[in-house]
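## retry 2 of 3
previous attempt timed out at serialization; input unchanged, resubmitting
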Amino acid sequence: MSDNQAAEPAEEILTPGQARAFQVIADGGTLKDVRGLSDKDIEAIYAVGFNFYNQAKYEQAEPMFQFACMYAHDQARYWMALGNCRQMVKNYQGAIDAYGFAYIQDITNPWSAIQASICYLALQNKEFAAQSLDLAEKTIANNKPDETAKQRIAALRHAL
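## retry succeeded, writing output
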């Protein structure tokens, strides 16, 4: 495209369905809203994944959690479940990624950073493990006290 050409407005290059989806998400919606799914629909898929997870069927649980995360990306617990699932199959980088999204969705909860630290330790990356623990400590300091989290952080610090 030359300097004299203007980019086409998004409305002109999107289909009506794409334009609607774009608007729903721009207004703070999720893909669940775009597709017309209810919270109950997403929760049912999550519940199936949770049952698989509790039976140690992590490979079957992961796509259920991925679905929940994709369609309700604003729910930290879905991202935590996906991270836990990936961590159980030793997909540590994938777990770290999921825990990162969980933290973005709930910056008051230190557990996503704590879990990421465990994954970094499994990858033998002590620097990032320590940074994750620092984030968890700052999260606790800026929010409500969590003695269990503090104890877990202290134990992980010893592993560094």
